[in-house]
Write a structure and sequence with these properties.
14 helices
């Protein structure tokens, strides 16, 4: 039961996450926002890490290094996509990782592809055609792929699906979600830190922190706990079911984008509702 409460927490936080990133990100500071997104999240993990029982076996760190490289690239693309396109357009596309995830988990985690999952995936694709609505389904999908931010988010989603598959493998071996999350975020932060040094953008970190301190902290907090909740959910819920359910948070994102950024979400909300129906079919076990 606790896994389902963790999943609910994940849904609520992920709905807020993209709005916070949109407020922070600009086309020329994607790397800086991504760095702060993970660096500040570490501070929210620390109290739990310090007072929790340490793992007896740290062999999971080898896998964590690989996963951190995947997520580093994925989240740089993720932030860039949100910064250059309307958040209500690209946010639902984050969930295209479900398509890749179903395939990957069936291969590597032996999770079954059922008829309901296939129907659910079809609905997810159909629902996505409402995000950039045109005269017909073909033109809608074509218009979606013409948008630069949309293409970047789909690529990010592929990398996220690969990372989530590895997450599912690791957490099912009994590794502490807390320590796995902490070291993953630590490695991502270190990688981004050296990239920022090499690109000579360190001054931008201080500038953004001074300009938007509370929003930066909020983004770090949401990032830390939304991911930790997901890993807790993975303990008792299939990765191909837990991750798609996150899509329910997209409704929160769309509603906030309407009132904060004045985006037109009429057709996009219809698309998301269809995608959620697909998610429900994927989640349903018969």
């Amino acid at each position: 039961m606790f896994s389902y409460f963790a999943l609910l927490g994940r849904i609520l936080l992920i709905g807020i996450e993209k709005i916070a990133i949109k407020e922070l990100a600009e086309e020329d500071n994607n790397l800086i926002v991504t760095f702060l997104f993970f660096f500040l999240a570490l501070f929210f993990f620390l109290p739990f890490v310090i007072f929790s029982k340490k793992p007896n076996d740290f062999s999971f760190l080898k896998t964590t290094i690989i996963t951190s490289l995947i997520y580093t690239n994925s989240f740089i693309l993720y932030v860039k996509s949100i910064s250059i396109s309307e958040v209500s357009l690209v946010a639902p596309l984050y969930n295209i990782n479900v398509f890749f995830l179903i395939i990957l988990t069936s291969i590597f985690l032996d999770e079954k592809i059922t008829i309901l999952k296939i129907i659910g995936l079809i609905l997810l694709i159909y629902g996505s055609s409402f995000l950039n609505r045109q005269e017909n389904l073909f033109l809608s999908i074509k218009a979606l792929f013409k948008d630069k931010g949309s293409k970047i988010m789909i690529l990010s989603s592929l990398l996220i699906a690969i990372g989530r598959t590895i997450d599912g493998q690791v957490t099912k071996t009994g590794v502490s979600p807390l320590f796995y999350s902490f070291f993953l975020y630590l490695f991502i932060t270190i990688i981004l830190f050296f990239i920022i040094l090499l690109t000579k953008k360190s001054k931008g970190v201080n500038l953004l922190l001074r300009k938007k301190p509370l929003l930066s902290i909020l983004a770090g907090m949401v990032n830390a706990y939304s991911y930790l909740f997901l890993l807790i959910a993975f303990k008792n819920i299939d990765v191909s079911l837990a991750e798609p359910s996150t899509m329910l948070g997209t409704i929160i994102t769309l509603i906030l984008s309407k009132y904060i950024f004045k985006e037109d979400i009429k057709y996009r909300l219809i698309g998301v509702l269809i995608m959620i129906l697909g998610t429900c079919l994927i989640f349903l076990k018969i």
